[in-house]
Prior knowledge:
The protein is of the alpha+beta class and 130 residues long. It has a 7-stranded antiparallel β-sheet with strand order 1-2-3-7-6-5-4. The two termini are 23 Å apart. The mean pLDDT is 93. The protein is built from 4 helices and 7 strands; from the N terminus they run E-H-H-E-E-H-E-E-E-E-H. The chain is globular, with a radius of gyration of 14 Å.
Amino acid sequence: CIRLSQDTLGEFSFYLIGKVFLDELSCKMMSEGWGGDGFQLYEEANSKKTLLLVLSKWDTERDAEEFFSFYKKVIEKKYAQPTKVLEDQNFSQWKAKEDNVYMLKSKDSVVIIEGAPDDLLSNLIAALKN
């Protein structure tokens, strides 16, 4: 994989992402309480598929919960008929065509993984748990 980009999204970017898929109030609620983030975007050389990794921090656990809840709605609208694989109150996983989308909330943090093939997702989840 080749890293295409590494940066910060910021509160306003999360608001704009929400704006594509959610109503105005939901966008504001989703992005409020942002406390920092970092993302990395990779591309697989042969297939040109992308992998997005985002780690976001929120001012409070409640802010993280709100973001997690609203971003799940973004995922369900962003991908054409994603299939929910697993879910509980702190994580969600979908299958979108042959790739996976995964979200994990832990206290005041939310991790998002979009575009991971099965084997890579398993390794990333294992790394998150350590």
